[in-house]
TetR family transcriptional regulator (Merismopedia glauca CCAP 1448/3), 417 residues
Amino acid sequence: MKVDVNQTDELWDLERPKIPPRSSLFHLEPIGIGTPYVESITSYVARLAEAHSVAVGTLIAAEIHKKFSKSDDIQQYYYPSLVKVYGQYYIKSLNGTSVKAKQFVAALNQLTLRDDLEFLTLLTWAEVLPSQELLRTDFAWCPQCYQEWRDSSKVIYSPLLWSLQSVNICLEHHRPLQSICPQCHQKFVPLWQTTRPGYCLKCDAWLGGHYSSVLQHCPNIAQSLEWDIWVASALGELLSKAVLFNSIPPRDSINKAIKLYANQLTNGNISALGRFLRVNHYKFLHWHQGSTIPIISELLKICYTLSTSVVDFLQVKVNQITLDKLAILASKTSQRRRKSSVTYSSRQDIEATRAAMQQALFEEHPPTLTQLAYRLGYKSYSPLTHISKSLATAIKKRATDYATLKRQVQGATRWLG
């Protein structure tokens, strides 16, 4: 083939090549967008720091803080930390609907050149979900999820679902989420200077493990399991559907839905609907008028009683339901609330709890009495003491001895090192 050397376009293209923009940080793929197990933004930034082989605090100070340097509400610091940049409260709200969460997502989007990080927060629902009682103040996790992910060489991360205060159980395993480290017996926040996915922030212990088979027979778990599963499923659906919304659902979605249900069930009588839903009269009127909106726990109870999903309710999709069925569901909801306040009732429940207490004495990393109580679904350790004072005393002693021994070993290791 002959080439005409006088035609430069046959030898090379003089047009400058189009080079796509480069991101300042890795274009790290978020986990689980469009699923109930979508990753939280605090988990994402921890994995991003790990991918860059730096501590979370270093990444925040060196990169993300720069995006806020001109903001009036954030002061300049020579060595900015997470607390100095965001404040203690805002660190705990980064997964939610706050202005700081929006700024944080915007900064990460710019640095990673991603456009989907808002779905790792609750920003899609900012107009319809008040911040009150929305997020946990402490980190929570499912030990069995962590263990299974590590055993199968999957990425260790923290789903956004675990950060919601209303979610008490793992949607996959139907077991209580944990919030106290089994090693150092402390709680910790979702994100800090040295956060590592799957490890305790305080003592760096691995948080994975397997649940005891005894737990399925324990009283409070058995009584509230149906409700807890429904809540986790409903909120999991809420998180998974966020990606499908082109715009944020407006605040008036809630009072519109209330009006439509009132028209269907009580001929437009708002007060009558409120009585059927067992909601305070004045509070329900404020919701109907749009002057206030229900917090997440109240919204869940309404949707459960109306036999509808939270997503459909917020989209003002009215579920067809009769007044008789509503009365049955309202009664069922009331019974569930009464049952949730029961500590234990039957001999079988007591024996199951006693068996769990006996088993705890032989665990490699013995739990404190408070940890065991939370694990079994109690709000305090008092019921355990009533069931067996001797076992409760033994559990306390073993946990104390273990903690003392661990401190001695750590001290000796530092001295030898």
